[in-house]
Specification:
The chain is an alpha+beta fold and 359 residues long. 33% of the residues lie in helices and 15% in strands.
């Protein structure tokens, strides 16, 4: 049987550092694991491209990974990418294809807020009245609704239940009655909140949202596929405030996940303030499922994810960046929305299988 290029490269690498003899074959039942810290001469970071190693060389169970692949094939997902301690161990599917990220966009903008708040350009304690925010589509905001702060919008706790651009039918069906909850008293996953977060960012910084994503994340993280032209502003007659969809590849999303897995640091630069990473991935609301909610990040409930701390950027039927900071692990899952036929139960089963293979 012919060995893959990656397999030959890994065997050569192991032999070159003295971990296996030159006569060993991929069929050997045991391979001495590589320590990524020693292998990289310190912490592993991607450069212009990702470094890839066989998962078995990093101590993963090949049998358990076979079960991951079975689930992945069953789901017909578009891509799965797994980063273990800064090194790619799984790259399946179209990991360089730019898909619309759906609601994963919100966690990226949360990161931008952290940067600009740290620089003093944004104050999340400001309310809608102070910012001059209303909605020109009737009925406009009441004085009570205008007391909602940016922090409450980040938490999806504004109490403003105005119709919004890019709402799914499920969001529309779940929207509370207008004026039924005061700001800060109730969680509802609210596109009006998230869209206004984007509008206020532009207002306070004077910068285009997609250019800021490029300058603040794509450039320093050396993203391979993202450009400002990947995004657009989606206006609808329901509200004056647009949504801000953008497309990104799995391999670029993984860089953002790794940034947050490492407390906002990239190599020797603190991109996102460490205290913002902690604050934005803290749970403020119980969503009723496997997750709580932070500042436009989903926060895994204790003991649900094999005892690990986990937070995630989730979007659509299955777009996800799962971040496990305690074990320096990032998992990115992508779907081709028009053809994908499964949902979050299958995605979570896939993630469970990944964690079992890692352990």
């Amino acid at each position: 049987m012919r060995m893959s290029v990656l397999g030959r490269r890994t065997v050569f690498l192991l032999a070159s550092v003295g971990l296996i003899s030159c006569g060993a074959t991929p069929a050997d039942p045991y391979v001495e694991p590589i320590d990524p810290v020693e292998h990289c001469g310190g912490t592993c970071w991607p450069g212009e491209t990702w470094e890839e190693l066989e998962a078995a060389a990093l101590g993963w169970s090949t049998d358990a990974l076979d079960r991951v692949r079975e689930q992945y094939a069953h789901m017909a997902s578009n891509a799965l990418l797994v980063v273990d301690r800064g090194v790619l161990v799984v790259r399946w599917g179209q990991t360089n294809r730019n898909h619309i990220v759906q609601s994963v966009r919100k966690s990226f903008v949360s990161g931008l807020y952290g940067i600009y708040e740290g620089e003093g350009a944004i104050d999340i304690s400001l309310d809608m009245a102070a910012l001059g925010i209303d909605d020109s589509v009737p009925p406009s905001l009441t004085d009570l609704e205008k007391q909602a702060t940016l922090q409450q919008l980040l938490q999806a706790r504004s109490g403003v239940y105005h119709e919004a651009a890019a709402e799914s039918q499920g969001m529309k069906d779940a929207r509370p009655e207008r004026w039924s909850h005061a700001p800060g008293t109730f969680y509802y996953y609210n596109n009006w909140d998230f869209n206004v977060i984007g509008v206020v960012f532009i207002q306070l910084t004077g910068e285009d949202l997609f250019q800021a994503l490029y300058d603040r994340f794509a450039v320093p993280l050396q993203m391979q596929d993202f450009a400002p032209s990947n995004g657009f502003y989606q206006y609808e007659t329901l509200s004056e405030h647009p949504a801000y969809p953008f497309a990104m590849s799995a391999q670029d999303m993984a860089r953002y996940g790794l940034l947050f897995a490492r407390q906002g640091q990239w190599r020797d630069e603190q991109i996102v303030p460490e205290d913002w990473v902690e604050e934005s991935t803290t749970a403020y609301s119980d969503t009723g499922g496997d997750f709580n909610y932070g500042y436009m990040w989903w926060v895994g409930k204790p003991d649900r994810f094999h005892g690990h701390r986990m937070f995630a950027a989730l979007g659509g039927a299955g777009h996800a960046i799962f971040v496990f900071p305690d074990i320096d692990l990032v998992v990115v899952h992508r779907v081709d929305a028009p053809t994908y036929r499964y949902g979050w139960n299958e995605v979570m089963e896939l993630l469970d299988r990944v964690i079992r293979a890692r352990q």
